[in-house]
Amino acid sequence: MSNATPAITIPDDLTSCHALIEQLAGTVEEQAGKIEALDREKQDLQLAYTALLQQAFRRRSERYIEDPNQLNSTLTIRTMRRTPPRV
What we know:
There is one protein chain. This protein is mostly helical. The chain has a domain at 11-59. Helix content is 62%, strand content 0%. The radius of gyration is 35 Å and the shape is rod-shaped.
């Protein structure tokens, strides 16, 4: 099994240890900045995704277009009830 973390050689003198600590602290700060940027990007993408879902699946009322060739269902049903059946 391989270890994903590179091996760190710890120096024997104090000055080198301080330099290593500063280097590692800089790496941690850099990674924290990248994480924050990715979190913001993720949040922006989630908001865009939610907006697209709402746009695609939001409630829409049916449109009625005034067209003389289109049957009006309420008038047709009422007319059919009033006319006696043909024998």
